[in-house]
Amino acid sequence: MRHKVTLILLITALSSLIFHSCIKDLEKEGIYVTTRCHGYIQDMATHQPIQGIKIVTTDGSTIDKTVYSEYDGSFSVNITIDQLKKGYYISVQPDSLYESQIIPLDNMTLGVEQYDLGVVNIKGPSIPVLLTGEADEVTATSAHCQATVVSSGNSAIIECGFVYDIYQYPTTETHKVTANLNNNRFDAVLPLIPNTTYYVRSYARNNIGIGYGEQITITTLNGLATLDSTSVSQITATTAMCTSTLIADGGSPVSECGVCWSTTPNPTIENLHNGQPNQTSTIQHRITNLQPNTRYYIRSYARNTAGIAYGPASSIVTLNGLPTVTTAIATDITDHSAVAGGNVAMGDFPILKRGVCYSTTPMPTVSSNHTSDGSGSGTFTSQLFNLTPGTTYYYRAYATNVVGTSYGEQFVFVTH
Predict the structure, then answer these.
(1) Can you list the alpha helix ranges (DSSP code H) found in 75-158?
(2) Residue 273 neighbours by CB distance under 10 Å
(3) Dihedral over alpha carbons 245, 247, 253, 258 (to 10 degrees)
(4) 3-state secondary structure of 249
(5) CB under 8 Å to 98, separation ≥6 — which residues?
(6) What one-character DSSP code corresponds to residue 27?
(7) Separation of alpha carbons 322 and 350, rounded Å
(8) Which of 162, 276, 333, 386 is deepest in the core (most CB within 10 A)?
(9) Among the listed residues 126, 137, 100, 99, the one whose alpha carbon sits nearest the alpha carbon of residue 45
(10) How do residues 143-198 score in pLDDT, each as one tens digit?
(11) Which residues, other chains included, contact 268 with Cβ-Cβ below 8 Å and sequence gap of 6+?
(12) What is the CA radius of gyration of the chain?
């Protein structure tokens, strides 16, 4: 009898080892028996994270696992493939202040290691629900804000307005401006200081408590003009066309605007610049006398009584300035001669010399045998003499300007 018990225990142990081995084999293939689900619990009205909320895996009658949300609202809970097949799901089951809620798993793929549940909004006490609109009429010292009461919570609104601070999530304990409610809408002008970023929320109070709308960010102006980034087109070896937009004048008229450029980042009017009295919101200038194959940094600028403002910097690299060359197919090939040639586009600099270079080795240059067929752009013809009969020659057209020499395509011919 003792041997029979020992045998049963041995078989049970082996089965457990085989089971765990199979799980490890599945995980090596990227298939997981247990999925770790991550999410965040947030109050639907205030959009604030909630700590200590109970989250469970359950089939509706039996609770398998229980976890609680952390200080930032985050939580992680495990659920197995077998549980999903038996109808288990994840449920938020807080205390009486909040409503319970089922977290859907419709988009979760079976066998994944982790699944992001995202933000789970749960409905709390019946405080007002608000929608904070975007601020407008932002100046250096003020901003106009507006909001809508989406729900009063079935309790009369006692007070409403906006709270603001340089720190996130301001409350009525920080700075606030009250407003008059009109058909579930209200607005107000906030008194601010220049060149400062503020966090703003709408708020409303009823007999249950205070509700806050989404937080928006406002940055007051510094009084300087605001400019768009500079777009650069028609780039050559020595010139470029620069275009920018004056977005706002900062509260005082712009007396001068233009572009400045340099081979170092963030150029100012202490570098090369081109300006004129402001005429329209579009700033357009052609800059000249640039160096070929050189990186330039370009910014638009505008001057008003507050000072000089600059737009975001752009950078370009000028063209190399070399001519563009095309090689013509050789004709009239004999045992000692051939006719070749090409076509030259001048580019930014005059063509000083042009012709055809040729050799019995690939990629001939002007250091090899070559012809000289005048100067200037356009089509030209070259006569190749003193060739060796029955020989393969590589040839290509070339053109030289003050920047250097460029070559056309390489072709091959064989003398007779």
Answers:
(1) 81-85
(2) 18
(3) -20
(4) coil
(5) 50, 53, 92, 122, 123, 124
(6) H
(7) 10
(8) 162
(9) 126
(10) 999 999 998 876 789 999 999 999 999 999 999 999 999 999 999 999 998 789 99
(11) 260, 299, 301, 308, 310
(12) 38
